[in-house]
Design a protein that fits this description.
Helix content: under 10%
Largest sheet: 3 strands, antiparallel
Number of helices: 0
Shape: elongated
Strand content: 25-35%
């Protein structure tokens, strides 16, 4: 489970965004939430939970998808500035791949 920015991760009736999703609407609601096979009303960060999403088919879910609460107000960015610390000097025609976990 990836670290969450807020303590409440999922709650029944809470509007969340599932991204990237192939349909036009990426807003999802929770049908049910289970923690350790026990039905619960919400799940917090650090817990392992099973989520039943409304109007989302199992075939639409794949690796790398992110579930974000609408209250977090997520936004996309095409560019960003970063200071790259590298042990060896960079040379011309060097392909650099940077993996950002959190910005």
């Amino acid at each position: 489970m990836a670290p969450a920015t807020s303590s409440l991760l999922a709650s029944r009736g809470l509007t969340s965004f599932l991204s990237p999703l192939q349909t036009l609407s990426n807003v999802v609601l929770f049908n049910s939430i289970h923690c350790k096979r026990v039905p619960t009303e919400d799940a917090v960060s650090g817990q392992s939970a099973s989520l039943a999403l409304k109007k989302v088919k199992r075939q639409q879910i794949r690796r790398g998808m992110v579930l974000v609460a609408a209250s977090e107000k997520p936004f996309a960015s095409w560019t960003f500035e970063a200071e790259v610390l590298h042990a060896e000097p960079l040379i011309a025609q060097f392909d650099l791949t940077d993996v950002c976990s959190r910005l």
